[in-house]
Amino acid sequence: MEVLVVGATGRQGGAVARELGSCGHAVRAFTRHPDSDAARELAAAGMRVHAGDLRDADSVARAAKGADAVFLMADFRAGPGEEVRAGSCALEGLRAAGVGHVVYSSVASADRRTGIPHFESKRWIEELLRRSGLPHTVVAPVFFMDNPKPSLAATGGTVLAMPLAETTVLQQVAVRDIGAFVRHVLEHPDEVVGERIEIAGDALTGPQAAAVLSCVTGRPVRYQAIPACPDRFGPDIAAMFAWLDRVGYQVDIPALHARFPGIGWHTFEAWARDGGVIPGSA
């Protein structure tokens, strides 16, 4: 199978590209930065690097032409308007290329009208995808286990600081599990086409996560709840953390893992022991 992977030089797209490549699939890596070190690493691993921009439908169509499937994601950091624009243009290009299966990476709870800007933008792209007529599957992950890495690194791995109350249970997923799940979806389209599937690997509070990290590393790690200040995190991310404290994701983790047992889902502890987020452990 030959798959065009959008965002292949990033964390999530990179996990998908590596997973597909390791399982013998041909990968086309779509990136705006073909001369980057990450793109060179993909090329060295045997992947074909395609330079392009999601906002340019023609470049998407050229890269996708002849591919069996596409993994699509859009960067939210330029703002929700630009994210929706990129998603819309990308879908135009994929329609022109006649792609047989689009796997779109959204976010869990995007369909619940949370009011969080980068959740709402993904909800709009999901709607555009439904209207496009393209065979598709929406994969909607929760919070990444990998996300706190910078804050841990800043303290030498001794403080896990997040803008969540100590009692808040946070559903999380390992990025590598996203790669494995997307591969499964691409390999078994008949099982999942037309579905929206939310994915998570584990759920625990901040103090519980810190205790796991303490056990795995053999050194004390404490949890610190910090304010969700818009000045520090930006309004979008601050709104997300406020929502996580009030409401939170609602993935049925046991049912998900029972339906897809072959993914090898990581608990937070398994993820940490595999290298995880602790500086110097990977």
TrEMBL record:
Keyword NADP on entry: yes
Keywords: NADP
Entry keyword Kinase: no
Domain NmrA-like, residue spans: 3-250
Pfam families found in the cross-reference section: NmrA (PF05368)
Family: Belongs to the NmrA-type oxidoreductase family.
Protein name: NmrA-like domain-containing protein
Annotated source species: Carbonactinospora thermoautotrophica
Lineage: Bacteria, Bacillati, Actinomycetota, Actinomycetes, Kitasatosporales
